[in-house]
Design brief:
The complex is a heterodimer of chains A (190) and B (315). Chain A is 20% helix and 21% strand. Chain A has 190 residues and is α+β, with helices and mostly antiparallel strands. Chain A is globular, with a radius of gyration of 16 Å. The complex binds iron/sulfur cluster (2 copies).
Amino acid sequence: MTKRYVLVHDENKCIGCQACNVACRSENNVPESVTRIQVRIEGPYGNFPHLHFKYNRVSCEQCENAPCVKVCPTGAAYVNDDGIVSINEKKCVGCLYCVAACPYKVRFINPETRVPDKCDFCKETRLARGEEPACVTVCPTQALVFGDANDMSSEVRKVLDTKPHYQQKVNLGTEPRVYRIPSRKGGIKA
Amino acid sequence: MNNIWGSMEQYDPVVWNWIIAVYLFMAGLSAGSMLVAIGLKWYKQSRGLPTEGLPVIKAAAVIGPVAICLGMALLVLDLTKPFEFYHILLNYNLTSVMAWGVIALLIYIPLVFVFAALVFEKQVLHYAPWLAGVLKVCRQVENTLNKLIFALGLGVGVYTGFLLSAMISYPILNTAVLPALFLASAMSVGSAGNILVATLFFSKKESDCIEQVHRIEYPVAFNEALCLVLLFVGLNFSGPAAQAATAAITTGTWASVFWIGVVGLGLVVPVLASTLAPKAWRHSKGFLITVSCSTILGVLALRHFVVYAGQSYIS
Ligand code: SF4
Ligand code: SF4
C-alpha cells in the first residue's frame, strides 16, 4: 500500500452546517432515506454560561484494521490498494454481518442496490479524477483536510504533525483513518 | 426526531433480528440433538447394550436434519440478496466466522441426512430401494461417520456463539463465554427436543433412555447457568461500557425475557420439575412434554435475549 488516504475533521472550524452531507448525497447519488455522512451536533457541554456544542462527524472511518472486512464471509468487503475500505457488490450476499460488526455504525443497506453502502472518499468519481472528496471541497470553513498521509509534504501530514488530534474508539484496535482535532473548549474525548 | 443532519433510522444498533435468533436456535437444536443422540449411542455401546430403535435416537434423526434445514431456509430468506446466496458457497474469507460456519454446515448437513437414513433404513429402502448400495457403504463407515457428525455438531454449536462474539463493539456479545453458553444451551435444547419428539412419536413404553437424557440435563443446565453468571460478572469488571450493558438484565423488556424465559422456563422449571416432582409423574407423557417444552422455550428466549439485548448495548 503506497497511499494512505486519511481525513482530518477540525472540530473547532466545523459549524455543523451539513454542507458536506448534502454534497455527498448529490455526488454519490445517495438515496433520500439513508446517509453516508452526518455531522451530529451534540451537547450542550460545559457549565452555564460557558456552553458549547460538539460537532461529531459520523462516516466510515476507513479502519486500518477493519472489523467489517474481517467478518465478511465472501470477501465482498475488502481493502483496496489505496487503503480505502471498499465493497464488491457482485460478491455480496447481503448477510448484514459487516453492518452489525462496524463499531461506528456507518454501514447501511442501500435500498436501491440491496448492498451495504458507506463513505469511500468518493474514490470512483472525484478521487479517480485527481480531485478531493466532495465533502472536503464544499466545506465553507475548511474544517476538513484530506490527503495521503504517506506523502510527507502533504497538507494532511502537516496538520497531523502539528495539531493535537484523536480518533474514535481506539480501544477497539480498529485504527481509524479519520482523525479529529478536538474543540479547544471540549478537550479530547474519544 | 427531525435533526438537521437527517434521519437516525439507519443507525439502529439492532441489525440482526428475530430471524437470526430463530436460526441460531434451530442450528443449536439440530447440533444439540445429534450430540445427545450420538453420545447416548456411545454410552450404550460401551456397556454392551443394544442401540437399535431407541426412541431418542429416532427423534434425533428427525430433528437433526429438519431443524438445520428450516434454520438455513430462514437464514437465506433473510439475506438482502437471497437469490445470490450462492456467492457465499463460492468465496471464502477465512477470517470470517461465518465462512467457517458455511464450511462446517456444508459437511454437517449431508451427514445428518445420512445419519437419519441409517436410523430409518427400513422406511428409506421401502420408498427408495435403489439407495440400498449407498446405505450399505454408509453402514460400514457408520462409526467414523458418527464421530465426524459429533465433531461437526460441536463445531456448529460453538460457531453460532463465535458468530456473535466476533462483533467487537457489543460488550454482551464480544466475550469468550458466549460460544460456551451457546453450546451448553444447544445441548439442553437438543435433549429436550429429543425427549419431546421421542415421547410424542416413538416411545411405546416408559423408556429408560429418557432417563439417561435426563442425566445429562443436570450438568448441562449447570454449565449454562455458570456461563450466564460468568457473562454478567465479567461485564461488570470490563469497563464502563460493558458495565452499562449489565442493565440488560435489570431494566426493560429484555430483562423480563431473561428472568422469565431464560432463567425461569429454561433453568428453574426443568431443574425443579425433575427434583421435586413425585416419582409417579416423572414418566408420564404430560410431564415429559411440559418440561421439555419449557426448556425449549427457555433456549428460544435465550437466543432472542442475546441477539436483541446483545446488540442494544454498544461500547
Ligand atoms: S468505520 Fe465501519 S465500515 Fe468503515 S472501515 Fe471501519 S468498520 Fe468498516
Ligand atoms: S453484507 Fe455483503 S459485504 Fe457485508 S458481510 Fe455480508 S456479504 Fe460481506
